[in-house]
Amino acid sequence: MIDQKKIVEPEKVSCEVCFKEIPISEAASVKATDYILYYCGLECYDRWKKQQEQSKPEK
């Protein structure tokens, strides 16, 4: 009899910007104080960073 191994789906997370489902092993992440944000790539990370800079109040 042949042993069949169970295929395990990799854990997935959503990109913080485009909400694309990506395996956690391939996600880029930024650790904050209480949470981790995941990005599918540098393009989404750059978009998020620009949005954060634009939403900061000017002094």
Description:
With 59 residues, the chain is of the alpha+beta class. The protein has a domain at 12-52. Helix content is 24%, strand content 24%. It contains one helix and four strands; from the N terminus they run ββββα. The chain has one helix at residues 42-55; strands at residues 12-14, 21-23, 28-31, 36-39. The strands form two sheets. A two-stranded antiparallel ribbon has the order 1-2. It has a two-stranded antiparallel sheet with strand order 3-4. Strand 3 and strand 4 (36-39) form a beta hairpin. The chain is elongated, with a radius of gyration of 17 Å. The chain starts with 11 loop residues before the first strand and ends with a helix. The model has no long low-confidence stretch (mean pLDDT 83).
Brief digest:
With 59 residues, this protein is α+β, with helices and mostly antiparallel strands.
